[in-house]
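Record 1 of the preview.
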Amino acid sequence: MELLMPQTTIQILRCLSLGTYTARVEGDELRIRGPQPLAGPLPASIKANRDELIAFLNEWADGVWPPAPGSGLREAQQILGCDLSTALDAVEAALRRYAGCVTRPWDTEWAAQKAAEALQYLGRNFPECLENLRVLDEHEMAANEAAMRGDRDAYLEALRSYCRAGRDEALRIRRGAA
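->
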C-alpha cells in the first residue's frame, strides 16, 4: 500500500515557483532548471505526473514555467486581477468542476468498497429489490459514468440513488404482497 501519493501537477508547479525553478517542454521532453538539484518527493512526483505536467504546461503556460506572457494562466491572472498563485487556484478549480477530479487518480479499491457497502445495505434491509435488479440499472450506469470521469462526489450520489431506488422497489413489492 502506497502511503504517499505523488503531488498533483498544480502542487508541482507551486514547488517549482517556490524554489525558483524553470521548466520547458521540448518536444516530448520536460527540462527543469534551478538553483540546485531537485530533492525530496518532488522528482518522483514529476516522474509520476510527467505526461500530465507536459500537457498542462502546453495548454496553460505555452510550454514553459513560469508561464509565458499571453498564456492561458497569464490571461486568467489578468482577467482576475490577481497573482499567479491565485490564477493557478482558479484554473485548478475550473478543471475540477468541468473535467471531474483531474488532480487525483481514481481509487478503484475505494470505489469497490463503496459499491459493496451499497449492495450489503440493500441485501440486509431490502432483499426484495434484488429480485428486480433492472430498476437499479439507471443508477448503476450513473455510478459507472462517474467512475469513468473520476468524480467521487457524483459516484457517491449515484450510489445513494441506487440505494433509494432499491428501497423504493422493495417497498413497492411489500405493498403488493400485503
